[in-house]
Amino acid sequence: MEKAEATKIDEEDFALIIPAYNEEESIGILISEIRSIYPDIEIIVISDGSTDNTAKIAYESGVTVLDLPCNLGVGGAVQTGMRYAVELGYETVVRIDGDGQHNPGEISRLLRAMKISGADFVTGSRFLNHGDVQGSTKMRRIGNILLACFLSLICRKRITDPTSGFWCTRGKLLKYFSLYYPSEYPEPEALALLRRQGYDMIEEAIDVRPRKYGVSSINSLGTIYFAMRVSLALMADRVRPVDRRYAKFGDERRLKNAT
Fold it and tell me: What is the pTM of this model?
């Protein structure tokens, strides 16, 4: 009974955004899986300039499709989805990837963690309770550890999975991200920015499923290079001024230290 009631509350409270680039083999399956758990939620697929049938399949699945005319990258696609959800009046947004690696059954876990903790941002971590992920190479794991350590230092908060594409956010932070979500290295930069704006975040342990179709856009050596470039971008972000219009009130000391 408690599970059913929790699901009903979740369905009323959030929109689900799915950035997708050339995911025609997985997007329909993913939408069907989501509908089996949450039959009534707003699902927003952002086809990021896909050249295959991603948008067509999503349309036929009966969800909202934002079919971008060119590829903006994941940051631009996610921001588009958040802005659309905000315009529809949603106060909470959940984001998952379109490749099917995230289990929609774990959405309630993130929402519950946000409700219990009071955090403004909850990200699903592949590494919080276990050290490896099926299909992850040693080089990719090393790159993730290096980036996680650097980001934890900047944010003054333990972060184990800085590139997770499975998260939820709400309220004023959602509105801030709908306007200023990072475009080049969105996941780690977003964590740094939200902390700089005075918001809190937590991680919640999740399991990631093996990719059934397609391949990752980052290879093993590219992961190390990616971690180095992101670290430089995060250092540059430290000089970005706090936007007090969207800063979280009630933590003046953190805001003072950030400026």
Answer: 0.84
